[in-house]
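PROTEIN DESIGN WORKSHEET
SECTION A - STRUCTURE
LENGTH: 404
TOKENS:
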């Protein structure tokens, strides 16, 4: 109600009543307005409190984020250190130890081969360290930071080898419940090491040859061609050239993988390395057991130097590990070694006039018999003690015509 509309003394009762109604209406409107303003004020105070709490929470979260960042930085540095330590440990694990001219020549040739794309064939008896040489080739070349995939062709059944190497699609065969990436595909950009390639069937040899020549393959159950860039290194404990001539290995594949050939001599042909390797393994296993100042006795070292080591470096490693476990923790004695008595006693069975092969066969027969007697005929344990595969032990028993 406006001020110029205020009534004067001469107003009528009706005018006065109208004024009263207008005044009541204004009062009511202002009261409602005050209510709304009060509600708005209260709501704004709630918003202000919530905003203030949000600011406090954000400050707290910022502090926690800074603490988390600092902690993550510490963890990151620790992970880097652990990765470096792990790499150093792996390098030590796969280190090739030796001072003989024979092993130095192998290392030099492997280093040269590392800088080419040529396929390499490594030949050597079981336990000589063919995988170590393959790893040396890989880590010495331009693919050092790429995958290194190991495949033991003799350990995987022929029915499974194709699926392992090339993978398969879901439903490709009974039991193929999901898609599987094969080892060749996993090694893309890196190196694949095919150990005991002489055990590979003719069917698989054909498929492997295609990968080498064309750099492509198909997963089982798929028509899609997959292209890969893989450097192949093969190894065998057989005379691959001989079995190729006998028709047991494809000639075209032999020449394809035999571009660069490396032959690792058996331990008996590099006696100079026995002492170095034995001390290397002693330090390794003594460290794992927390032993200090442990050493070989003169008799134990003499026994190791006189022993022929048919299981090569792997057998030597196993023998030293057993000696550390079974010894007194101070000195390795000859009787702590699983070869001690045999290394000394067998020499009486080898006489002048025997050919080298006859002498070796005589030694092998006695060696295998004594190990099997020690394990009470358990071929698996015997193979582990000798550092050879169980299949190789069975083949050795047949070749030597041992009557057990």
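SECTION B - SEQUENCE
RESIDUE ASSIGNMENT:
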């Amino acid at each position: 109600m406006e001020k110029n509309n205020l009534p004067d003394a001469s107003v009528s009762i009706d005018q006065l009543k109208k004024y009263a109604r207008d005044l009541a209406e204004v009062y009511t409107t202002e009261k409602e307005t005050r209510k709304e303003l009060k509600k708005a004020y209260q709501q704004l105070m709630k918003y202000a409190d919530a905003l203030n709490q949000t600011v406090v929470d954000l400050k707290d979260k910022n502090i926690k984020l800074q603490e988390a960042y600092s902690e993550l930085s510490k963890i990151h540095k620790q992970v880097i250190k652990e990765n470096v330590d792990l790499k150093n440990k792996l390098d030590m694990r796969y280190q090739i130890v030796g001072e003989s001219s024979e092993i130095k020549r192998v290392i030099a040739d492997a280093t040269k081969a590392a800088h080419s794309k040529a396929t390499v064939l490594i030949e050597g008896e079981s336990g000589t360290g063919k995988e170590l040489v393959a790893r040396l080739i890989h880590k010495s070349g331009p693919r050092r930071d790429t995958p290194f995939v190991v495949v033991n062709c003799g350990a995987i059944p022929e029915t499974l080898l194709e699926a392992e190497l090339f993978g398969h699609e879901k439903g490709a065969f009974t039991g193929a419940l999901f898609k599987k990436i094969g080892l060749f595909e996993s090694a893309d950009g890196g190196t694949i090491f095919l150990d005991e390639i002489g055990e590979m069937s003719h069917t698989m040899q054909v498929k492997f040859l295609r990968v080498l020549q064309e750099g492509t393959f198909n997963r089982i159950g798929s028509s899609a061609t997959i292209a890969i860039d893989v450097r192949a290194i093969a190894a065998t404990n057989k005379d691959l050239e001989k079995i190729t001539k006998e028709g047991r290995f494809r000639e075209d594949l032999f020449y394809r993988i035999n571009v660069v050939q490396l032959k690792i001599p058996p331990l008996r042909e590099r006696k100079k390395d026995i002492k170095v390797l034995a001390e290397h393994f002693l330090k390794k296993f003594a460290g794992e057991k927390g032993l200090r100042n442990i050493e070989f006795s003169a008799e134990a070292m003499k026994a190791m130097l006189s022993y022929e080591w048919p299981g090569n470096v792997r057998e030597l490693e196993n023998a030293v590990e057993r000696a550390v476990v079974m010894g007194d923790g101070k000195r390795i004695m000859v009787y702590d070694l699983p070869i001690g008595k045999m290394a000394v006693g067998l020499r009486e069975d080898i006489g002048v006039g025997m050919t080298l092969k006859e002498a070796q066969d005589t030694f092998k027969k006695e060696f295998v018999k004594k190990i099997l007697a020690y394990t009470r005929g358990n071929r698996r344990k015997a193979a582990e003690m000798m550092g050879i595969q169980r299949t190789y032990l069975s083949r050795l028993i047949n070749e030597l015509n041992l009557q057990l």
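SECTION C - NOTES
The chain has three domains: 13-92, 101-265, 268-399.
The mean pLDDT is 84.
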